[in-house]
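wait is this the right file?? whatever heres the structure
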């Protein structure tokens, strides 16, 4: 009985659930160049693969993997991320977006497991341009928690193909990503 009541309540709420703002999709794959500029000269660069898939009008799963080689060393830093996001249209062209993710970092003799939470907005600013801004917090078992800001942009060439990029600004390091995105 209790399960039936919950199912009925969820079914009744479906028509009222918000979808993504016009022109914003959470179904994509992308790959490209990744770079980190760190305080103290431990800069690194390499590649990244990322993706996202909507599982309902308001929820999406996302993940990514990047590998960067620290300049003037043989050390490769590997980073994997997997999480769930919530999006809700707040205007016809803007979504409020929150994300929670598992974060894993590995390098020679180093491993860190942690999590991140992030909240912000994603908006279609022009027919072929989407921008985003968010604040986040990341914590792990080997480091103290850190607040960061993230700015992103996507320039669409066709409904499916675009170039996407973002910059993550944290205490001690700034990370960059740019590459092609396929939206499906």
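ok assuming it is, sequence goes like this
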């Amino acid at each position: 009985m209790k399960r039936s009541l919950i199912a009925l309540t969820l079914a009744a709420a479906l028509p009222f659930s918000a979808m993504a703002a016009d022109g914003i999709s959470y179904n994509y794959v992308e790959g490209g160049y990744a770079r980190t500029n760190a305080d103290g000269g431990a800069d690194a660069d390499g590649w990244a693969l990322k993706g996202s898939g909507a599982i309902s009008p308001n929820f999406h799963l996302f993940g990514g993997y990047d590998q960067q080689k620290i300049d003037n060393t043989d050390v490769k830093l590997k980073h994997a991320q997997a999480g769930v996001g919530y999006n809700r249209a707040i205007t016809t062209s803007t979504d409020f977006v929150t994300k929670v993710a598992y974060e894993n970092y590995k390098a020679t003799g180093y491993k860190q497991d942690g999590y991140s939470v992030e909240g912000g907005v994603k908006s279609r600013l022009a027919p072929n341009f989407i921008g985003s801004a968010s604040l986040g917090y990341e914590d792990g078992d080997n480091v103290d928690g850190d607040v960061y800001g993230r700015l992103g942009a996507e320039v669409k060439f066709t409904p499916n193909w675009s170039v996407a990029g973002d910059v993550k600004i944290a205490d001690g390091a700034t990370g960059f990503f740019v590459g092609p995105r396929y939206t499906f």
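The chain is about 5% helix and 65% strand. so i think its the right one actually
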